[in-house]
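To assess whether ligand presence alters the predicted conformation, the chain was also submitted together with heme C. Input:
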Amino acid sequence: MSVQSHRRMLVILVAAAPACSRVEEPRLKSPAAVLGQAVDKSERAATDANSESLTLFESRILPIFQSAKPSSCSECHLSGVDLKDYIRPTQREMFASLVAAEMIDPEKPDDSKILRFISRRPERPGIITDQVRQQEFEAFRAWIRAAVIDPDLLTALDKAEPIGPEAPDEVIRHARKDRVLASFIENVWTEVGRCAACHSPDRNQEQVNKHGEQVSWIKLRDPQGTLNYMLEADLIDIENPELSLLLTKPTMQIEHGGGQKMVVGDRTYKQFRRFLDDYAAVAQGKYTTSQQLPPPGDEISVVTDIWLKIEGVPANYDGMLLQADLHRWTETGWSEQRVATSDRPIFGKGNLWQHSLSLTAPRDSAWAKEIVGEKLPPGRYLVKLYIDRTGKLEKDFASELGPEDLVGEVEAESDWPAGYGRMTVIGFREE
Ligand code: HEC
Ligand code: HEC
């Protein structure tokens, strides 16, 4: 051996030494550190130092386990699963456990289920994640190929322990990003039309000139892009979802250049909270059982440009939230379920209330398929008027206006045309 390569060896040894003595540092009291020791004591001694599988395990699998970065799984799973869930401190335990869980197929190693999990790619993968995925895949495949022919591992199959994510399947399913996006679309995206005049880049040039690019938080025809942007720009507060700017701005809980666009407890607010509270819980991995998952809302809705105006509203109701529910005339009388609704504070000085309608339908009903057309069939409707006279929505945003808040019922017959200039007008009537 030349002097030079001797010196290089020394350098390597010296460089390696602090790593061992670092065991004392608190930083290394992580599972990863404990790992390192376990590998040293139990496995090195027992295994042939030249074992290819052990070398691969230490050089390529453990670094994935120790990495602070999320694995490629996070591209589709917001939480609930991570590749680290399938790694164990020792390769004996890991191999035995993955075989027992049918994640490794010892007969056909390249067909192992874990490799299939790792090779799942979204349609539009991120460049970085795709590199990570490639590395993970190659590391696992190389190790699995070596492990299935390692006699030391094949004779230790009794070392199996439970392996894989702890969360039940329902929770994993709920935390999938495609599910999260579906909830975003249903609860938030469907409502942002209310904000578009000032926040959509195709319509807000004036607002941008005056206030800056950040007012364009709606990404045109791109709900995923909009959600991503909201997260990047901190419009969503994952620690305290109720303090998200997405809520506090339009409710004027803090100053908002657009004024009051919704109030605490109204339908849009409830929907935004439904998404935000759930998103925060998923992102923080707070769900551990399927019972904790929020049940899906039993009503779906779409915002329309059909306007309803109520004249003659007593001024003493100024500022209170009025909710108008529309029931349609059917062969058997007024429909039991509302078919449209609208809620907004009363403008007392003008003895006036007006707002656009949202069509509403029980989930999975025939009407639910129709409402996407944003049309209300012409004809007779009963408009039930509820007023929040006690401020109960603000006290408890989840509360609903019920029979005790009903102040009157008005019949209306209209073709329900769309457009601000073509409102259906009714007179207020109190019972
Ligand atoms: C391209 C998106 C995508 C990636 C990346 C992805 N998954 Fe999934 N995962 C899914 C989908 C979609 C399902 C539901 C599949 C189904 O029902 O067949 C799922 C389901 C699961 C399940 C539920 C049980 C099962 O057998 O279906 C587990 C566990 C899981 N994935 C683990 C992982 C792990 C671990 C990774 C990373 C190594 C990962 N996934 C990467 C999309 C992905
Ligand atoms: C009439 C115009 C207008 C409407 C409609 C409007 N806004 Fe705004 N909004 C503004 C202006 C102007 C700003 C910039 C000044 C400010 O931050 O208050 C703003 C700022 C915001 C911000 C902060 C953006 C940032 O990155 O700083 C959020 C969040 C927001 N609005 C949410 C909403 C929501 C949600 C709606 C619909 C329910 C809505 N706005 C409707 C005018 C409007």
